[in-house]
Amino acid sequence: MIVVTGAAGFIASCLVTRLNAANFNDIVVVDNFNEERKLANLKGKHLREYVDRETFFEWLDANHEQVEFIFHLGARTDTTEQNRDILNVLNFEYSKKMWQACCQYQLPLVYASSAATYGSGTLGYSDEDALLPLLRPLNPYGDSKNDFDNWAVNQTEKPFFWAGLKFFNVYGPNEYHKGRMASVILHAFRQIQETGSMTLFRSHNPEYADGEQKRDFVYVKDVVEVCYFLMHNRQHSGIYNLGTGEARTFLDLTLNTFAALDRTADIHFRDTPEDIRDTYQYFTQAEMQKLRSIGYDRPFTRLEDGINDYVRNYLVTGNYY
């Protein structure tokens, strides 16, 4: 059995699809299944069992001998969340329990970290361990992820294989439920369909023109390929960036969304909301040498190709992956 936590969410549900495609069908999905808006992400998938996140560790105690691998992708992912107690419980303490259970039962573990740990990026985007204690995230969500990364690398007892993945800006199918936290592509698609135009955040940093803010946008299908690779290549534990290694602008993102819809671009700007303005990242770009060094050699999807696939084959049709 393969365990996937956060399984009804965006990235994890896409991972379940990738596993099914490789004939892994004994998948135990773990989540808070009371959130009905996410359940459509799991329809039609081959699953063995649904386990509520609150009772998962009791389930694992009883079933660990049948578990082969754990993907711990569940978390509180709202980057605007200010309640540190919630983030501590869901992102830090729960992950600690997962780590300790994997040590106890000798289970391999891949868990979700985040590029939010890099904060403003003034220290760069290296995924080497030496940088971890120096990072200063810009919000409590980033703190919760960085706190766990630091805790993990400093443990004397570790799973026999483990990997923490620092997801950069992931986009793609199955994010319909994410609301404000969905990718700009989904917001652009909806705005263009409704109004024929798209409004982006204005730059409040004199070093960047409006729309020229840059992020490392990575297609979710690439993210799950890396997860699949790590399931089969367990020689090198550690923390790894998961982006493309190439920063692109929000204008690039939006113009390609218009192009995928065969629409003429009409882009406007508005002030960045004050609740995120001071913690807004103007540039992210993953250093990918570390992942490449352990043998991951697949090319990452070009932004143009990823947006075209996402818009035409999922957003326009309403399909799930």
UniProtKB/TrEMBL annotation:
It is an enzyme of class 5 (isomerase). NADP(+) binds at F10, I11, D31, N32, K38, R53, L73, G74, A75, R76, T77, K145, V170, K178. Its EC number is 5.1.3.20. Substrate binds at N169, R180, H187, F201, R202, S203, H204, R215, Y280. Its cofactor is NADP(+). It catalyses: ADP-D-glycero-beta-D-manno-heptose = ADP-L-glycero-beta-D-manno-heptose. The active site is at Y141, K178. Keywords: Carbohydrate metabolism, Isomerase, NADP. The keyword NADP applies. Residues 2-243 form the NAD-dependent epimerase/dehydratase domain. Binds 1 NADP(+) per subunit. GO terms for molecular function: ADP-glyceromanno-heptose 6-epimerase activity; NADP binding. The keyword Isomerase applies. Contains a large N-terminal NADP-binding domain, and a smaller C-terminal substrate-binding domain. Belongs to the NAD(P)-dependent epimerase/dehydratase family. HldD subfamily. Catalyzes the interconversion between ADP-D-glycero-beta-D-manno-heptose and ADP-L-glycero-beta-D-manno-heptose via an epimerization at carbon 6 of the heptose. This is ADP-L-glycero-D-manno-heptose-6-epimerase. It comes from Hymenobacter taeanensis. The gene is rfaD.
